[in-house]
Amino acid sequence: MPELPEVETIARDLAPLLRGLRIAKVWHAAQPPVFDRHSLPPEMLAGRTVIAVERAGKFVVIELSAGLRLAVHLRMTGRLIFRPVHAPLPPDAERYARATLSFRGGAELLFADVRKFGRLRVFRGGAQDALALGVDPFDRRLDATALAALTRKRTTPVKMWLLDQRRLAGVGNIYACEALYYARLRPKRRVGRLTALERHRLLLALRKVLRKAIYHRGSSVDDYVDAAGESGRFQNHLAVYGRAGMPCRRCGTPINRMVLGQRGTFYCPACQR
Ligand SMILES: [Zn+2]
C-alpha cells in the first residue's frame, strides 16, 4: 500500500499538471461506491478550479476553489492517471476506471483501481480534521518533547503506534520497519517506555528514511506505480523490510521476521534493542 513517500511523489507530480484546471464533469462507478459515506455529493466538484495538490497522511488531497477539497486514498491498487488533451490512456486504465474528472479543454484525471478498495471523499475545511489524521512526521512542532506527550503511558508496541494514522499520519508497514531499524529499536518495545534519547533517535530515523524514500520516488514492493505508471526505486535500498533471513547490512546477523498486529515485521535481532 502506498505510504507517505509514494503519496508525496504522486502529489508533487500531479500538482503542476492539475493547477489552474477547471472541472467540467465528474463520472464515478456506482458499485461498490467509490466516494465514501462521509463524502459531500461528487457533483459539487463540477465548476471548481484546482488550486493545489498536496499530501495529508496517506491521502492525495486536491484543493479546489470555493473551499472544497477532494481526498483520494489509493489503498492497495488505486492509481491516479492524468491524461492530457488528445493523449491516449495507458492500457487497462479505462477498464479499471472508478472515477473520472473531466476538465475544461479536454484533459482528464482518472482514478483506476483493480481491487476497488480505494476511496474518494469531497469535503470542506482542513484535511487533518476532516480525515481524522494525527501529526505529520515532517511537522516542525513534532519534536522529542511533543513525541513524549503523544506516547506518555502508552503500552502499545512502538511499531503499532507508528502505524496508527490517528496518532501519526503517513507511516505504514514498510517505513515503520525501516525507521525502527535505523533508530536501533525493537518493534515490540512499549512506546511509552522509550527514553528521551530513543525518542530523539526514532524521530531522526523516521525523517531520514522518509526523505530518502521520497528522493527515490517511493518503494514499488507490491503494485505501486506513480501517476505516470513508473515504479519507485527505494525497494532496492530497504534495510530490513522483506529481507528475512538475509544478512543485516550493518552487522551481518540474519534479519528476523515476526508478526505484530497481523503485519509482517522485520528487524535485526542484534542491532535493534
Ligand atoms: Zn544488525
Topology of this protein?
Layout: H1 4-18, E1 23-28, E2 50-56, E3 59-64, E4 68-73, E5 78-83, E6 97-103, E7 108-113, E8 119-124, H2 127-130, H3 144-151, H4 158-163, H5 173-182, H6 196-215, E9 256-260, E10 263-267
Antiparallel strand pairs: 1-6, 2-3, 3-4, 4-8, 5-7, 6-7, 9-10
Helix pairs in contact: 1-6, 3-6, 5-6
This protein binds zinc ion.
The CATH homologous superfamily name of the largest domain equals MutM-like, N-terminal
Radius of gyration: 20 Å
The low-pLDDT segments are none
Would you tell me which CATH topology of the largest domain applies? N-terminal domain of MutM-like DNA repair proteins
How far apart, in Å, are the first and last alpha carbons?
Answer: 28 Å
Q: What count of structural domains?
A: 2
Instruction: List how many beta strands DSSP finds.
Output: 10
Mean pLDDT: 96
